[in-house]
Amino acid sequence: MGWYNKRLAKSIWVFHISASPCNNCDIEILDLLTPRYDIERFGIKLVGSIRHADALLVTGILNRKVGPRVKAIYEQAPRPCFAVGVGSCPASGCCFKDSYNIPSSPKDTIPFDLFIPGCPPKPENMIEGVVKLVEVLNG
Amino acid sequence: MTLTHVFYLLIFPGLLFTGVLGMLVGWVDRKVSARFQFRVGPPLLQNFNDFFKLLGKETIVTKESVAAMFLSAPFIAFGMLVLVSAMVGVALFYGAGFGGDIIVIMYLLMIYSVMVILGGSSTGNVYSSVGAGREIKLLLADELAFILVILVPIIKSGYELELGAILSAQAEQGVFIGSASGVIAFIIGILSIQAKMTLPPFDIPEAETEIVEGPFMEYSGPPLAFWKLSRLMMWVIFPFFLILILWGGFNFTGLGILWSLLKYLLIVVVMIIIKNTNPRVRIDTSLNFFWKYLTPLGFVAIILAILGV
Does A8 sit within 8 Å of B56, measured CB to CB? Predict the structure, then answer.
């Protein structure tokens, strides 16, 4: 699998799920595609269909309403597929932690492989997270 | 079917050569597009990585889809393009062909579009069906202009229906692009190729921002890889075909190699520039454009060709 994982590491197509975010993380994700950070250098491309995706970027607090939807989308992705939680919300619930509409552990909604903390994380942080994912793939 | 034919089909002008060259030219497309937006762009072997990665992914067939059609469409379409690339390549590099092969090429290219329509409409997804419907409309729009473009060299070569004969006619009486009708046909040719490859501004069927890649939306894994490879191979087939019928083919002696390469890159770069400087048109705008402007212009080119200009 080593050869295949190297190919996968050089061509990660990401699908962006907004699970009721405050939109700050989404803006920072879009920054990655702009000329300043240009993540296409690493072969990373934003795709519109979940069937083409290799990694899901989940932003937002994953509350009781949107959690099942995120789970349904995750199940539609072709394997191998990685779930990356962007921002503090998917990891810990951030400042919404004790709200009535947040399940006790939002990060168990789907099996996350990686969290990129920050509120919102800087684009540099996200690139670092992606590099860690690539390192795991490369063994 | 001798061993040479297998070689033509699978290795030199066919599958391997066109596939590898298509992926490299696809990289040129992505790189130049990135430079247009002041980005750096992907590395050289990006399209190879994408292709091999997709080969290893899971293939999902939805419950609503017509599985046989859904799974066979990308491979039939790919096979058609391999055939076209072999025929165009054999005529370009060996000057060989058979009577009426230009008509066979027109049909095979049509079958590719039909496969996109069938594959897109068999997925059971609404967006895919919308994309397939748009593909039909785009086919209606560009097909007539494309056929008129092909008629011009046929008339100018003295009603030859063979690619090799068209090429040798150009060797005798000068390249067709040197005449008024040839120039008009070439300009219409580049625009209708843009529509046949569904590049912007004619990317109506796959419109990523509104119907998320349209017919290809539900595909994943190897079938998607072959759709992507087919689309990359078109970067080779269509410019080669245009060079073959209007611009006198390739010349592999001395500086001719450089000039041949320049001809090919010129067409590719013009297409990339059109792609990057134009927003997507609506379906009615594109029908207007092809039927009101390009098709009458095509008829003018044919009349000029008959008059011998």
Answer: yes
Contact A91, A115 (CB under 8 A): yes
Domain count across chain A: 1
* Per-residue pLDDT tens digits for B115-153: 999 988 888 888 888 889 888 988 888 889 999 999 998
In which residue are the tokens 């932003």 written?
A: A59
Cα(B36)–Cα(A23) distance, integer angstroms: 28
pLDDT of A1 reads 61
Residue B85 structure tokens = 């690339």
Tally of domains in chain B: 1
Here the CATH number for the domain that contains residue A43 is: 3.40.50.12280
pLDDT digits (tens, 9 = 90+) for B273-308: 999 898 888 888 889 999 999 999 999 999 998 988
Q: Rounded distance, CA B104 to CA B163, Å?
A: 11
A101 touches chain B (CB under 8 A): no
Residues spanned by the domain of A86: 2-138
Q: Do B217 and A43 touch (CB under 8 A)?
A: no
Hey, is the C-beta of A4 within 8 angstroms of any chain B C-beta?
A: yes
What's the gap in Å between the CA of A120 and the closest CA on chain B?
A: 24
User: Is the predicted pLDDT of residue B161 greater than 70, yes or no?
Assistant: yes
Tokens 């008829």 belong to B299
Residues in chain A predicted with pLDDT less than 50, given as ranges, are none
pTM of the complete model: 0.90
pLDDT digits (tens, 9 = 90+) for B87-113: 888 888 887 778 888 899 999 999 999
Contact B60 A51 (CB under 8 A): yes
Q: pLDDT, tens digit, for every residue of B51-61? A: 998 988 888 88
CA distances from B59 to A6, A46, A49, A111, B220 (A): 20, 20, 14, 21, 5
Range of B251's domain?
3-307
Among B274, B272, B277, B279, CA closest to B29:
B272
- B224: nearest CB among A52, A76, A79: A52
Inter-chain contact B42–A49, Cβ cutoff 8 Å? no
Rounded Cα distance, B109 and B101, in Å? 12
Q: How far is CA B13 from CA A127, B10, B178, in A?
A: 41, 8, 27
Interchain contact B209–A (C-beta under 8 A): yes
